[in-house]
Fold these 2 entries.
Entry 1:
Amino acid sequence: MKIYKYGAKVLRQKAEPVKWSPEIRNFIMEMFKTMKAESGVGLAAPQVGKSSRIIIIDVGEGPMAFINPEIIKKEGDSVAEEGCLSFPGIYFEIERAEKIEVKAVNDKGGEITISAAGLAARAIQHEVDHLNGVLIVDRASFLNRKLAAGKLRKIKKEGQKDEMFS
Ligand code: NI
């Protein structure tokens, strides 16, 4: 699967809810392969060009998939550097909740509610943002955005071109 970069319109769309099916399960498996190949810890369907509410993470605690995820509880604050496969080479300090509770459907079609903290909580919040068209650049400070302006411009151009020729 191809990863769409900042500048691609699909990353700015609000993704559609998904009904579980065996095809969705296969799609999720392909997403995991793509994420592993790029050494990512999280990926959202819009990043591979599909505007659907599906996210996956693997922060070293095993692979997890969430269909139609909803963050139902947030607790505490934490600030850390975050990257994104759609922003190669760029890292921003971003504030997230330290602990969350998330409700979703898993890759087998079952309803789940899980608690996550630390890196897992951060990754889930980052990926849920993707489903709402929100990107790390939107959550970065004005100063950090300024500092990265040159790199951002370059990636944005590539992202626009990628989408035009796909
Ligand atoms: Ni991302």
Entry 2:
Amino acid sequence: MARKTVLVTGGAGYIGSHTCVELLNAGFPVVVLDNFRNSHPEAIERVRKLAAGSLKLVTGDVCDSACLERLFAEESIAAVIHFAGLKAVGESVAKPELYYRVNVGGTLTLIEAMLKAQCSRFVFSSSATVYGDPQEVPVPENARFAPESPYGASKAMVERVLTDVAKANPSWRVALLRYFNPVGAHVSGEIGEDPLGPPDNLFPYVAQVAVGKREYLTIHGNDYPTRDGTGERDYIHVVDLARGHVAALDHLDELHAATAINLGRGIGGTVMEVLRAFEKACGHPIKHVVGPRRPGDVARYFADPAQAEKLLGWRAEFDIERACADTWRWQSRYPDGFRTR
Ligand code: NAD
Ligand code: UFG
């Protein structure tokens, strides 16, 4: 059966670009909406080289209702995957109004345009950050909501809005995908994570030390109650995550109203384990020092991914070693990301 067109907001970004590749490979025509606030148009060109099929780019802002209305009038959109938004936890503490404007306001604008166009299929990029400091690991979807930053709160609010919209409009089907720690890059080394400025997250930081852009990694604490004392997270390969979105689209009709689904491996890796795996991938030692704990960090955090397997028939395939090998291929080939000359 012919696949119907999917609108991917934020499709030029890290997770969005990998998802576009998987959507095109699965036969979905794709329309990307992105304002390139945190990405580069070259990412779209690379996606076009990696996957055949129809990929249209609209440069615009998800907060711009006229732009969205035009887009829905011109394209026949069957479903939306909504990645566009801001994601820096620290920045969200300094500029909460900006985060609520873009993440909550942008989603409301999108929902209104969808209601007008009678488009009722929505896949939302939520985050495991909605759980805050979890009371138990692995974390199930019915765990307590306790976001600790305006970023996390904006994701929780959007989940609530979408849940109410799905309740009010029985034809709507919404997947609230709660990602754990997305890492890795496409196996080609042609697309990957391309942070502007110093990375906050472990993988891009380690990668920049490995390639010589930064001097050393600071391990934020080695006195946690974990197997080697360093923090433990559920690192999920971005291609697995991208395929989770294709699975969500394929099973959306079977879901009940708005359904929250964890996307993680269900296996934790520690900072030391990531460091060792990356050293193996790049073939040389990575300089590091141990610093104090980072405020707000938790010791152990990983998903209960059973619901994703049950509802979407999806489970993650790739391990940390594979994520390090793919990240290194991208980072060593393009040390300055999409701006590499
Ligand atoms: P990213 O910054 O690489 O991608 C977001 C994309 O949205 C970028 O291309 C950016 O230019 C675009 N964008 C931002 N504001 C926009 C606007 N107003 N209008 C149109 N486009 C806009 O981030 P990512 O890592 O790919 O994350 C994608 C989504 O997944 C985000 O919603 C993020 O909160 C969520 N998420 C990410 C992680 C993670 O660790 N990367 C974890 C959990 C959830
Ligand atoms: N870490 C270091 N050194 C670094 C960076 C990170 O030791 O330079 C450690 C952290 O302390 C943590 C682990 O590596 O133990 C992972 O840290 P990340 O910053 O990569 O990931 P987090 O789990 O802290 O962040 C994730 C998501 C955010 C989300 C946040 C909420 O990336 O989007 O969880 O807790 F908001």
